[in-house]
Amino acid sequence: MKISRRGFLKVSGIGILAVLSAPRVAFAARNSLRSLRTGVQPGNKTRLVIETSARPTYSLSYPANQLVVSLSNTAANTGITANLASSGLVKSLAQAQNGDTLQVIANLKSGIAPIQKSGIMILEPNGDNDYRLVLDFVAGSGAAAASSATATTATAKTETKQATQPAKPATPAKKYIIVVDAGHGGKDPGCIGKGGTREKDVVLSVAKKLKTKLDANGFKTYLTRSGDTYLKLAQRAEIAEQKKADLFISLHANANPSRKMKGFSIYTLSEKASDEEAKKLAEAENAADKIGVEGFTEFEENIRIALSSLQQHAVAEMSEEYANGCAKSFKKLSIEQQPGPDVRHAPFAVLRSTVPGALLELGHLSNASEEKLLKSSSHQDKLVNAIVKSIKNYNFDV
Question: N or C: which end of the chain has fewer CB within 10 A?
Fold first, then answer.
């Protein structure tokens, strides 16, 4: 099952969390610890996720059989319990407060190799998580790790800058599988612009162009629909499961009571909507077949089990990473963004699966100028170029 192959393992055991040398905090911390958890990744990698209330600045060091993550201007949190995977290299986690620096100490089963830059991510907050520092590491020579600790421990400012840069773009040696979902279709036209442009037609045109370009760039791409076909939302999500997709992208066009509103917007799955507008949009999209996001009895039992913990685990984090990169790609190509945050969150039924994914509202058909853009071949090509760039820059291997 994909969630266990690529994401965190859900474990029933309680992680061991100790607080060492943690006097009463006398400084005014700008940051605080929210949660600690570990998981496993392909290639015998162990993943440590440190969640904080604000963006972390940090450095790493490698004492014998330990990984120490020093978080600047951060307060310890004695009230949390670490969630440790049953496998992996981490035996226990501890906190140590040294002045205004919090040290998260991972006690390891063996020494580890210094963590490469490609194994470090800082994920932005989403609907259910704050900032997350994500570290992937493998077993290695403890002596080598210790001797190279100084060389691999950079300043917090430098580490943060490098950690937020994407790993090397994917010009895939293997064919990553992308499922592109053209929203609506058949008896469901979606929203309709004043000039008569139908959402279902615009997004299908973009989806077909996107498939052609992704395939040309070495990806294996499937469409949930290649014609004017009506599909239930659960069917669309299930196609991504059946194809064992690495990424799922659902394409839509928006409408707004204000005809002045325009611009793209990007959404990931969350049980709680990030704002009222996101909530209303999710309700409108989910009403396409009146499906609720709590049921999904169409899925096999093992998938439903995975869905129950989706927001706490890797799929949500990978979706957030892709969505933020996608927003950057759109803005770099000067595609206008709807006012508001780069990524929003809501309980979209079509995103409810174990596959990382995002819902892209490509623009507003309710805006006369944007309606003309959305049905123009040149603007559709521009949208496709931005999406392809975001997928090539997405790090599939974490």
Answer: N
- Quickly list DSSP for 25-77: P-S--SEEEEEEEEEEETTTEEEEEEEESS---EEEE--TTEEEEEETTEE--
- Residue 93: CATH number of its domain: 2.60.40.3500
Number of neighbouring beta carbons within 10 Å of residue 242:
10
* Number of domains present in the structure of the chain: 2
User: CATH number for the domain including 211?
Assistant: 3.40.630.40
pLDDT in tens, 66-107: 999 999 999 999 899 999 988 889 999 999 998 889 999 999
Q: Write down the pTM of the prediction.
A: 0.58
CB 348 within 8 A of CB 269: yes
Q: What is the DSSP secondary structure assignment for residue 103, as one 8-state letter?
A: E
For the stretch 238-269, pLDDT in tens is 999 899 999 999 999 999 889 999 999 999 88
Q: Is 24 helix (H, G, I), strand (E, B) or coil?
A: coil
Q: Which domain-ending residue is among 94, 129, 163?
A: 163
Note whether 244 and 210 are same-domain residues. Answer: yes
| Domain span including residue 372 | 177-393
Question: What is the rounded distance in angstroms from the CA atom of residue 26 to the CA atom of residue 87?
Answer: 37
Residues 304 and 388 in one domain: yes
What are the two backbone dihedrals, phi and then psi, of residue 350, each rounded to the nearest 5 degrees?
-65, -20
8 A C-beta contact, residue 202 and residue 374: yes
Among the listed residues 119, 104, 116, the one whose alpha carbon sits nearest the alpha carbon of residue 71: 104
63 shares its domain with 156 = yes
Task: Say whether 137 sits in a helix, a strand or coil.
Answer: strand
The sign of the torsion formed by the CA atoms of 226, 229, 233, 235 equals negative
Q: Specify whether 183 is located in the same domain as 153.
A: no
Per-residue pLDDT reduced to its tens digit, 123-175:
888 767 889 999 999 998 643 333 333 333 333 333 334 444 444 444 455 68
Residues 9 and 104 in one domain: yes
User: Which helix (H) or strand (E) covers residue 351, if one does?
Assistant: none
Look at residue 64 and tell me if it is in a domain.
yes
